[in-house]
Write the structure tokens for this entry.
Amino acid sequence: TEIFDGFSKTVSKCKFIPVVCGSSLENGGISNLLEIIAKSFPSYISKKHFKAISKQDNKEMQIEISENGNFCGFCFKTVLDQFNGKLSFIRVLNGEIKKDDEVLIVEKNNKFKVTKILQPFGNKIEEMEKGVTGDIIVLQKLDDISTTYTIGSKDISYTYAFDKLPQPVYSVAISAKDKNTEDKLISTLHKFSEEDPTLIVKYDPETKQNVISGMGELHLEVYFSKIRKQLKLEFETSIPRINYKETITKQVESRYKHKKQSGGHGQYGEVAIRVSPNKRGEGFKFVNSIVGGVIPKQYIPGVEKGLIEGLNNGVLGKFPIIDIIVELFDGSYHEVDSSEMSFKIAARQALKDAMTKGDPILLEPIMNLSVYAMDKYTGDIISDLNGKRGKILGMDPIPGGLTLIKAEVPHSELLRYATDLKSITQGTASFELEFSHYSPITGKLAEQVIEERKKFITAEEEE
């Protein structure tokens, strides 16, 4: 008894981690594992409190665990079953949930009525009357609930503070070989992402690609294999295109007059704009400096709309334009022929002219990279990052003979970094990525990007 008591206390404090050897295929050691869990691991109720995030001020708070408290549950898993539909696995964190209860989905502020409470037993699911604190229950066919969502009684105003999910580090663009099956392919991938929150599927409107992201090459290949075997769908994968941008480097002025006469009312609108570089990351800013009514107020929104439309296509490679300030300072109108559309067209053309005169440059996305690796590999990792145009920000020792390497690296150099790092460290290192900022790219690299972009646009127009 003393051994089990001490074992339980040290395990609950994470000072002792038991290792049990066995085989799930041969069913060896499974009963021993379950016995250790049942006898020695602390129950959920022994925690006394759980962490939550307040909906009012977004601050962390402690919620006392009580079987008599307000019901709160956390969806930790989603399964899409071909016979039972969508199954949401819920850990009951507080209180109890019964059939016919009205329950709130906290993140969406939506309510639903509980029609059936299920409990999983191996590969079977049995119905039960209620779920109490500490139980794992299953709710069926609830489209509004996703993994990591909090549900509860109408009185709760917090979400469960779950551990941060790892960010995907490996991405590929995917497309069906037969365009008629494209929708089915993407729909299937979205279903997989409901079950696995570390699998991200999204359409990038700038590169016009469906991009699937995960924790590594093997992670994605598991789902690709399912699609090939279960759905018999043929598809292609490729390296995703990078979201480059354009901007200007000096202040310029541009004037454009849109004038068209084709019977009846014509079209007339003239704008004069002053375009200046904005601070990096500040985006687009429109300034209306019109005085004396040279352009009537009702046409100013048309000018702004034309400028916003013009931001979609730069002059170097038709990449989106960012980080500019556009000041409308002069123009003219016609009593009969002017319209919002006329000023919209004039503004769009004036911006295009200004971009041409403003010494435009190409911008590439720069990522913050954090690499966790064994000390003996740091030299090779840094050498590799230097070869990828990376900027090393620092190195910090962390427990366990590991080093955290922080760097800024162009996104285009990291599209296959999961594979590169695995090769350098024999699969022992890990890394995290997040967007940092956009930075100018010049010379042969910029020329190569623009040339590839022109080929892509030409091919798209031919289709």
